[in-house]
Amino acid sequence: MDILGTSLRVCVGDLNAAIDVYERLTGAEAIRFQRGGVAVAAVGCFFLMSGPEAELSVLRKIAATIAVKDVDDALADLTAVGADIIAGPLPTPIGRNLVARHPDGSVFEYVDRNQGGEA
């Protein structure tokens, strides 16, 4: 699998205030989107997330989001090393994703920007 980068997940109480801080720190402009009841802002290498605690508690279990060239390749490699695929692959607004638990217990989201995502 080709890993292109990693994004850190940060749960925040006030998304607008956090965006101001992270835009200043990274020099990047926030890209906002909604995932279920959670408002998300991608700022540089950070995913800022704010919403209902029930949804955030699930998202906190995922250590990081890993950008890959192709989720299908990631799926094959993860399966080969004995990872447990928790969810996906599923289409998202920007590509596809899957969530996997590595054999050591760590949980990661893998995402690509391949076609097949929802428009």
Automatic annotation (TrEMBL):
<dbReference type="Pfam" id="PF00903">
    <property type="entry name" value="Glyoxalase"/>
</dbReference>
<dbReference type="InterPro" id="IPR004360">
    <property type="entry name" value="Glyas_Fos-R_dOase_dom"/>
</dbReference>
<feature type="domain" description="VOC">
    <location>
        <begin position="1"/>
        <end position="113"/>
    </location>
</feature>
<protein>
    <submittedName>
        <fullName>VOC family protein</fullName>
    </submittedName>
</protein>
<dbReference type="InterPro" id="IPR037523">
    <property type="entry name" value="VOC_core"/>
</dbReference>
<dbReference type="InterPro" id="IPR029068">
    <property type="entry name" value="Glyas_Bleomycin-R_OHBP_Dase"/>
</dbReference>
